[in-house]
Structure formats: structure tokens, C-alpha cells
């Protein structure tokens, strides 16, 4: 049995405090409710049992962020709990037991305990930013204020499911070419470091004049072989430098802008960013959040520093009294189709609805584009890999072809 300190109010509104023993916070809350007290705060006395609990919790936590798919599933389950009328404390306890992600399980369990102590759902979620970002918590807070928490959580579930679906399709489209390029790079290094040196020794013994293409490949092979550690160090330094630069504001801005200009994959990434922006903005405005607050929150949800900086310009323009669509158009970042839908929604007072429709349009565009890329990427990769490896093979066999021609000419001359 553990000891719990509580703060509550009696029927006359007088605040009372005390200590009770029990198995858990739910049991203490039940005892206090049975005594006719309104519970304000319940905390477990910190002792050896508490230390053991925190050590266990620390051992279960994995660093990083909870995957979007896990948060989407939790949101769907939470919406069901709220809609069914189950008390949130009890419902969250059940969800904590059913969860598969250890970080999310710990977060939900802690949220249940905080709700039992009198905190609101948004306050409890604010303690777990690795699971619930600022946009998520702001929408929960808006739902609590407006009394529409069930609808808000349902919207969040749909939103996160859409985001996860689009992210999965984009990753799937990128994973195949990256895998093939990695394989081609390893194959090329194997040829340069193992096969080409063998041919070099044979040609050196023959003392034959080599074609320029063969000499070029052999020079590259020798350079890499003699400076392998240095080459690996240079590659590692470039990777580390790239990561460090990409984490700065300026580097992230330039990198995200470059991503949108890439051939083939740039349009897919741009449509993905626009879909995420439009859906997030539409849901935030539809949940009752003010426009300026929504613009602040949507910056992080956009997932692109280039677009986020444009949203800063939009906020400044709107604050100065300019129209919403006019402010977005002035940045030169947002596509005309989105701007036209925004203009229609702004005039009709249905900006949130039109933004969600814009997101639906981009989702369909992303899916269609990915299907088109998938049909083209395989032959492109085959040509690329065949070209890289074929270049080395042809270069190394050219002297053999030359030797065969020389032998044939010699035989004819005899």
C-alpha cells in the first residue's frame, strides 16, 4: 500500500487536505468521491516504491518521437472513448494497457494520472511533446474550450491517418531508387578496388599501351585504393558537415527550398507539403482557433522551412490588414490552385472547408504522381546501374579487344 496526499473540497466549498493509503490514485479518488469530496489534486508520496517506478519508466522510454501512425491510432481510440461516455481517466488507463509503443504507453499512463489529479487533457498532453506536438495540443485546448472535444479528436485522427498515408507513399517512392543507388555504389567500389587492380597487374606484365578510357579507370582505382581511409574520412566529413548545416536555420531553409526544385521528386514533395499545410490550416481554423494563432501552429506542421518562412510573411501581411488570399499570393510560394480555392472560401466564409478540399486534391495528385514515377523509376535505375558498371567493364576489356585485333592483323599479314 502506498501513501497519497490529496487536496479536495467538501460540499460547503471548503478546501481540505490529508493523507490516505491505497493501491493507486484511482482508488484514492474513489474513496474521496465516496466521502462526498470534489478532488482537486492527488499525489503519491515519493519513497522507495516511487523511485522504483521511475526507474522502470526510464528503462521503458525510447528516445525520439512517437511515430505518426501510433498517435493516429491513439487518437482514433481516444475519440471512441470520449464518444462512448467512458470517463477519461479510466479510458486512458485502458489505452495505456493496450498500446504497443512504449513511449506512448508511458505518456498515456502519466496523462491518466494527471487527469486524476485534476489537470485538463491539454495540460497533461503538454508534458509529452515527443508524442503530441503544439498543433495537436492547441486543437485539444480549443476543443476543451468549445465543448467539442469528441469532434476535435475525431478530426485529429483523420488528419494524422491522412498524413501517415501520404508519408508512407512518398517514402515508398524514394526507398527503391535509394536502395538501387546504394547497391550500384557498392558494386562500383568492388569493381574499382578488387577487379580493376587485377587487370592492372596483367596489363603491366604485358607492357601493352592502354586506351585512354582504361587508363582513366585504372587511375581512379589507384587513387581510391591508396587513399581509401582518407576517402572514407572525406565522405564522413561531408556527411557530418551536411547534417550540421541542415540543422541551422539558414541551412534548413536552403535545403528545403532545394528539395522542392528537384527533378522528378520535387513536384511530389511540393504537393505533399501543400497537402499537409492546407489540411492542417483547415482543421485549425475549423476548430475555432484564431487565424493568426493557426498560422503560427501550421508552420511546424508544414514540415518545410521554406514554406514556414513564407507563412511568417503571410502572418505579418494579415496583421497589417491585408486579405488572407492576397497575403498568401504575395509570397510567390503557394500554387495558384490553392490560392483560388482560398479566395473562394474567404469570400464565402468557408475558408476551412476549401482548404481541406485543396488538401484532398493534392493527396490525389501525390498518389497519381507516385504511380507514374514508380512506372518510370525501374527502367531509369536499370540504365543508370548498367551504365555505371558497364563503363568500368568496357574500359577494362578494351585492351583485350585491341590485342585480339592485333593478333588477327598479324595472322593476316603472314
Q: How would you describe what is shown here?
A:
This protein is mostly helical. Among the domains are: about 1-60, Roll (Ubiquitin-like (UB roll)); about 265-365, Receptor-associated Protein (Up-down Bundle). The chain is built from 17 helices and 3 strands. Strands 2-1-3 form a 3-stranded antiparallel sheet, with helices on one face. Helix 8 (about 150-205) packs across helix 9 and helix 9 packs across helix 17 (about 350-414). The radius of gyration is 31 Å and the shape is elongated. The model is unreliable at about 45-65 and about 410-414 (pLDDT under 50).
Coarse shape: elongated
Distance between the termini: 107 Å
CATH architecture term of the domain at 265-367: Up-down Bundle
- CATH class categorisation of the domain at 265-367: Mainly Alpha
Side by side, the strands of the main sheet go: 2-1-3
Largest sheet: 3 strands, antiparallel
- Assembly state here? single chain
Q: Could you name the ranges where pLDDT drops below 50 across 5 or more consecutive residues?
A: 47-63, 409-414
N-to-C SSE string, H for helix and E for strand: EEHEHHHHHHHHHHHHHHHH
Q: Report the β-strand fraction as a percent range.
A: 5-15%
CATH superfamily of the domain at 265-367: Type II secretion system (T2SS), domain F
CATH topology of the domain at 265-367: Receptor-associated Protein
The SS-based structural class is mainly alpha
How many β-strand runs?
3
How would you state the average pLDDT, rounded?
A: 80
Amino acid at each position: 500500500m502506498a501513501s497519497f496526499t490529496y487536496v479536495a473540497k467538501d460540499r460547503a466549498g471548503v478546501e481540505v487536505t490529508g493523507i490516505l493509503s491505497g493501491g493507486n490514485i484511482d482508488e484514492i479518488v474513489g474513496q474521496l468521491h465516496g466521502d462526498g469530496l470534489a478532488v482537486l489534486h492527488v499525489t503519491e508520496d515519493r519513497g522507495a516504491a516511487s523511485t522504483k517506478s521511475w526507474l522502470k519508466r526510464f528503462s521503458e522510454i525510447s528516445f525520439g518521437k512517437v511515430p505518426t501512425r501510433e498517435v493516429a491510432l491513439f487518437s482514433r481510440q481516444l475519440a471512441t472513448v470520449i464518444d462512448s461516455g467512458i470517463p477519461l481517466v479510466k479510458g486512458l488507463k485502458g489505452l495505456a494497457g493496450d498500446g504497443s509503443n512504449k513511449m506512448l504507453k508511458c505518456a498515456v499512463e502519466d496523462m491518466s494520472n494527471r487527469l486524476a489529479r485534476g489537470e485538463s487533457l491539454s495540460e497533461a498532453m503538454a508534458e509529452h511533446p515527443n508524442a503530441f506536438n503544439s498543433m495537436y495540443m492547441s486543437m485539444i485546448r480549443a476543443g476543451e474550450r468549445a465543448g467539442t472535444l469528441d469532434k476535435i479528436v475525431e478530426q485529429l485522427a483523420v488528419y494524422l491517418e491522412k498524413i501517415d498515408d501520404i508519408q508512407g507513399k512518398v517514402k515508398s517512392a524514394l526507398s527503391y531508387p535509394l536502395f538501387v543507388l546504394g547497391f550500384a555504389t557498392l558494386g562500383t567500389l568492388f569493381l574499382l578496388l578488387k577487379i580493376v587492380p587485377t587487370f592492372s597487374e596483367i596489363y603491366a606484365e604485358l607492357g601493352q599501351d592502354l586506351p585512354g578510357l582504361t587508363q582513366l579507370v585504372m587511375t581512379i582505382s589507384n587513387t581510391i585504393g591508396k587513399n581509401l581511409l582518407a576517402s572514407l574520412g572525406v565522405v564522413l566529413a561531408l556527411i557530418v558537415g551536411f547534417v550540421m548545416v541542415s540543422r541551422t536555420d539558414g541551412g534548413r531553409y536552403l535545403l528545403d527550398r532545394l528539395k522542392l526544385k528537384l527533378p522528378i521528386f520535387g513536384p511530389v514533395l511540393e504537393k505533399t507539403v501543400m497537402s499537409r499545410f492546407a489540411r492542417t490550416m483547415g482543421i485549425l481554423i475549423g476548430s475555432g482557433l484564431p487565424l493568426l494563432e493557426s498560422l503560427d501552429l501550421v508552420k511546424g506542421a508544414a514540415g518545410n522551412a521554406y514554406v514556414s518562412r513564407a507563412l511568417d510573411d503571410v502572418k505579418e501581411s494579415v496583421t497589417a490588414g491585408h486579405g488572407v488570399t492576397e497575403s498568401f499570393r504575395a509570397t510567390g510560394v503557394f500554387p495558384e490552385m490553392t490560392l483560388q480555392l482560398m479566395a473562394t472560401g474567404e469570400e464565402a466564409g468557408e475558408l476551412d472547408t476549401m482548404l481541406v478540399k485543396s488538401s484532398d486534391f493534392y493527396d490525389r495528385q501525390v498518389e497519381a504522381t507516385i504511380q507514374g514515377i514508380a512506372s518510370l523509376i525501374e527502367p531509369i535505375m536499370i540504365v543508370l546501374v548498367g551504365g555505371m558498371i558497364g563503363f568500368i567493364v568496357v574500359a577494362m576489356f578494351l585492351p583485350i579487344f585491341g590485342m585480339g585485333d592485333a593478333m588477327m592483323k598479324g595472322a593476316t599479314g603472314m
